[in-house]
Amino acid sequence: MSCFTLLTAKITNFSLYKFYSFYKKVAFLFFLGFFIGSINNSNSVFAQNTTTSQTNNMSYLVGSFDQLQEEGKKQNKPYFVYVHARNNKFDSVTFANKYVQTYIKKRYLAQKLQAPSLYADYVVKQYEVKNFPQILVFTPQGKLVDRITSYLSPKQMIARLKLHESKTGSSDERISAFAKAANPELSMKLQTEGEIQEVYHFSIRPYGVEEKTIGIQLGVFENYQNLVNNVSELELHWHDNILVTFVEIDGKMLYRLLLGPFYSYEHAEVYNKNLKEKMGLRGILVSLEDFDPITEENKDKYLIENIETPVESENPNKR
Hints:
alpha+beta; 19% strand
């Protein structure tokens, strides 16, 4: 073998050795990186699953209601608890809607609790949940601002939640306000000088106005006692859809009494005619968004045919 041939063979062997050595190092580093990445990804997924769960791409915070409250305060975001006994239209339609999911992800924290369960039972007892499904809406500080007890379409759900996304207030505000208002001297004066006329059972909660909803306005009262008397009269005749608004004009509080809400002009009109025939009451149809009267000129947008997702219960023949 010539010197040239021997030298060429050595160079070739050295080059092949360097090439395979380099290849082994690259392959080792590649698999090492892939392995570490897999571990990190699995840890990331695990960490994520400890805080949220996915249902139809809808993200819910898992854990206790206390954890949801803490997270709401931490992120300064309103939140809601969806308590249910079985899957329903909220799951299959409303919360499956991509626009609802996008809106909630940006504006709210959400938790889904199935009753009966340890976490759900606490919420049911604490907030007197008497029917399912039910959605309780809270401020970031923990104040209950709305209670959704009937089905809402995707559009209605977004409109309802928008009413509360900027609200604030803690759960103990009512107690502190009540303590300030509970004047012991005035209480003693009422006891010694006042004359009890009637005792009423009150059940008052805020109502979130939805888009294109109608109310039947029965009257506006200056005197609070007159308002209470009329509410009592309506309840005696089995009306459980009573709404009251407070309006301040020139420093004086006025009270608007309505029945509602109605989700179509047809339903509200039939109900109003029944009021006149059976009770002699003359109501006027108004928009619950701005309380403008609904007339022949503007009623078209409230007709069933022009409502995108009419509520199933809004059948004029049901009441």
